[in-house]
Amino acid sequence: MPLGEEKNGACDRSIYVNNPHLESMTEDILYHFNLGTSTHDLPAMFGDVKFVCVGGSPWRMKSFTEYIAKELGLSEPNADYPNICAGTDRYAMYKVGPVLSVSHGMGIPSISIMLHELIKLLYHARCTDVTVVRIGTSGGIGLKPGTVVVTKQSVDSAFQPRLEQIILGKPVVRSTELDGELAEELLQCGKDLAEFETVIGNTMCTLDFYEGQARLDGAFCSYSEEDKQNYLAEAYAAGVRNIEMESSVFAAMCKLSNLRAAVVCVALLDRLKGDQLTSSHDVLNNYQQRPQVLVGHYIKKKLNASKKS
Amino acid sequence: MPLGEEKNGACDRSIYVNNPHLESMTEDILYHFNLGTSTHDLPAMFGDVKFVCVGGSPWRMKSFTEYIAKELGLSEPNADYPNICAGTDRYAMYKVGPVLSVSHGMGIPSISIMLHELIKLLYHARCTDVTVVRIGTSGGIGLKPGTVVVTKQSVDSAFQPRLEQIILGKPVVRSTELDGELAEELLQCGKDLAEFETVIGNTMCTLDFYEGQARLDGAFCSYSEEDKQNYLAEAYAAGVRNIEMESSVFAAMCKLSNLRAAVVCVALLDRLKGDQLTSSHDVLNNYQQRPQVLVGHYIKKKLNASKKS
């Protein structure tokens, strides 16, 4: 039931919530954002949002906001961007112009709580035509460290494009399909920039960083180096170019709510060559900025195009 | 393979890592803590740790450290407790005397990364006789808001005491058994204090806060109020008294590494009566301190007993 569907026949792409119970609630408290429909004027605060960038680390999402403000010519000298969710330490949220930047912590459950509340926020704020991009870090397979991967399909540990979601104790399978056109546009942005390598490939999403990603350096490990290499080779053969921990539920929830969505992650290391992050802080920091630069370029291009049209 | 096992026949309870690969590593980087065996003297920093308290929120873990310092008579006027993981925003870590306090974010994947690195940290630091307690928040079933639940068994969405962990693409089932004696001792602490209600019961651990816990207020909901009530009634009949998102992997990983472990969570609301957290900030804040007070009492009691013996 697309409660968010426009009734006026406009071609705006609306945000869907699929929950008939929301209509009967007099108030909706977005608890983990410390925001609510009674306490905040969500349409005034967020109605102009057209791009949402999400990433694990609150620091990175603040730095993205500073970066995009400068790129879009919206930054003022000594401007500080307050954390909109300052009353909680669960997530951090920043906004500049049409760009919202939100942290999501690590793993499927953490990003899923954030996305439930983000989708409701965008719905309550009556946003339209929103594009959401996850900008993150990942382990690469057969890639030079620092390569940026635009996700074609988010796949599970058996390399299938699906997410199993438990509802009332029963598994429900959801598609993790992403927007193919958007992925191609982002790949093109990487080529335009020519500052680092950008590739398109499948992204494996796991529930665990160590055993779930065949690492040999966790507290527990019951398999050999050879077992690890065989598993990663199978993943590579299935088109997997990087591994992270949020893309599947991100893809599934954005699809369910009619949000144009993409995943852009930098590979911090090549998992075929090792498991530990031994690059220097400065090198890793430079790598982490690459998805920001790529998505910043995309947003600028889109906004310039819409100004002209 | 219990690499951490004592060879001297002492009755100390050692931390096990179950990973033969660790021995051949010249350096171990605990990436998400921003600590490492080459860069930090882990035995000097952490060798005296006897209690580790973990919880989702970094703010709460700092406030627990301030509280326990006062309780144990270890606080100095104007003392500030620096975040040991200050170089990263993934987790926060504080220490006072024998008590380590670490945040873990939300959900199984987030706490699992932290626990892999915590277990290796305790192992590298050659700690012995460590007790780990998760102090958290949860949704209660049939409980008065503010009731503290000590977990008997951590169960999955089908009410079974197990965790399915994917390793190299294949499911492995692990036991989520906790230390029964420790749970009884913690329950007794609640009775000693008599400041709030404390009960023992099963805790359901889910991968999702909204659909996974039968909430009616997420962005998506495909079931009725009646379906929700039926599911929660089934959970109650299976002994479930609260629902949270970390206990199963916490129990499983502590068991695998020989750590005495318990889960103590306050119920912020009664899910039979609603889904949203409508209590005031002050009331919720008071509730969140209860697991800290209970576990603080337990630690004090144990340290006093060991001084006498």
Automatic annotation (TrEMBL), chains A, B:
GO molecular function term, any single one: uridine phosphorylase activity
Protein's GO biological process: nucleotide catabolic process; UMP salvage; uridine catabolic process
Keyword presence, Nucleotide-binding: no
Domain Nucleoside phosphorylase, residue spans: 50-299
UniProt enzyme class: transferase
Domain of life: Eukaryota
Keyword Phosphoprotein: no
Residue sites binding phosphate per the record: 90, 134-137
Pfam families: PNP_UDP_1
Keywords from the named record: Glycosyltransferase, Transferase
Reactions mediated catalytically: uridine + phosphate = alpha-D-ribose 1-phosphate + uracil
Binding locations of substrate: 213, 215
Pathway of action: Pyrimidine metabolism; UMP biosynthesis via salvage pathway; uracil from uridine (phosphorylase route): step 1/1
A GO cellular component entry from the record: cytosol
EC number: 2.4.2.3
PROSITE patterns according to UniProt: PNP_UDP_1
InterPro entries listed in its UniProt record: Nucleoside_phosphorylase_CS, Nucleoside_phosphorylase_d, Nucleoside_phosphorylase_sf, Uridine_phosphorylase_euk
Function text: Catalyzes the reversible phosphorylytic cleavage of uridine to uracil and ribose-1-phosphate which can then be utilized as carbon and energy sources or in the rescue of pyrimidine bases for nucleotide synthesis. Shows broad substrate specificity and can also accept deoxyuridine and other analogous compounds.
Family that this chain belongs to: Belongs to the PNP/UDP phosphorylase family.
Entry protein name: Uridine phosphorylase
